Amino acid sequence: MPPCSPSPYGGVTVALATRHGKEKVIARPLRRGLGAELLHVPEVDTDALGTFCGTVPRQGGALQACVAKAEAALAHGGTDFALASEGSFGPHPHLPFLAAGVECMVFLDRRLGLTISEQAVSRHTNFAHRLVAAPLARASDPDLQTWLQRVGFPRHGLMARPHHGGAEGEVVKGLTSWEDLREAIEGAAARSADGLALVETDMRAHLNPTRMASIRALAFLLVRRLARSCPACQSPGWGVVDQRDGLPCDWCGLPTSLTRAEVWGCQRCGHQEEAPRPDGLLRADPGHCSWCNP
């Protein structure tokens, strides 16, 4: 693939709507990779587009929410360029017994009419939940203490709500101390029909350093994409748009479900080119072959 060309966004201002501190990890990739400056637009209520705790349902998927955030940043920031990010968490798409985070990031270029996105799937997440009974003492439940350590509390925030019953959407967020957590658990358990509190990791970026690191890494990926020009029309944003399955089995040569090649494309003119896998793998392990390993 062609190397990164001189930045088409040197000196421009890119608006970012966030109330969760994402500007702290996005500004540097934009400045170093593109020569662009970030404009933080905190007045946009991004929670109105959906919340992790479920009190405000997200309309559509992560990409649609991301675009809506970026459009709001354009409207309030008064620039021709905007950026937004969105995350979703649940079972890993290929390893459902493991938790995973999917981060999506979108860049809008109103001048060229471009919507350029990148996303990344990471197994490095503390996403988890646990049922807890009250009353609590600091050392009364060694399993709870082990779980709290595993999810990174108190450096990572938590949420608590009644497991059954309670007011619609009732949840206490941003718990970062044992005393606040204990009080929230006992209050939620008292309001729950089964006497249990549901404790969850708070996945908002400013209360989740693990997620913040993923956002920073994705920002660098997006910047590298924006710095690449289409070989056909020279528009920015040249990058992977699809994959081709069918990597041949090392034993029988039949196609497997593994990726054989990447498809690179341009959002503006639609030009596409096929490229080999970045890891250089040419043959699949027979364990992935439906013929050799039915």
Could you explain how this protein is built, in words?
The protein is of the alpha+beta class. It folds into 3 domains: 1-124 and 204-228, Maf protein (Alpha-Beta Complex), CATH 3.90.950.10; 129-202, 2-Layer Sandwich (Dna Ligase, domain 1), CATH 3.30.1490; 230-294, no CATH class. 23% of the residues lie in helices and 27% in strands. It is built from 5 helices and 12 strands. The chain has helices at 23-34, 62-77, 142-150, 178-191, 209-226; strands at residues 13-16, 37-40, 81-91, 99-109, 114-122, 129-133, 158-162, 172-175, 196-201, 239-245, 259-265, 272-276. The strands form 3 sheets. Strands 2-1-3-4-5 form a 5-stranded mixed beta sheet, sandwiched between helices. A hairpin with a 6-residue loop joins strand 11 and strand 12. Helix 1 (23-34) packs parallel to helix 5 (209-226). The chain is flat, with a radius of gyration of 22 Å. The relative contact order is 0.14.
Shape summary: flat
| Uncertain stretches of 5 or more adjacent residues | none
Which whole number gives the mean pLDDT? 91
Separation of the first and last Cα atoms: 36 Å
Major sheet description:
5 strands, mixed
Radius of gyration: 22 Å
Condensed summary:
This protein has 294 residues and is an alpha+beta fold. It contains five helices and twelve strands.
Write the layout of secondary structure elements.
Layout: E1 13-16, H1 23-34, E2 37-40, H2 62-77, E3 81-91, E4 99-109, E5 114-122, E6 129-133, H3 142-150, E7 158-162, E8 172-175, H4 178-191, E9 196-201, H5 209-226, E10 239-245, E11 259-265, E12 272-276
Helix pairs in contact: 1-5
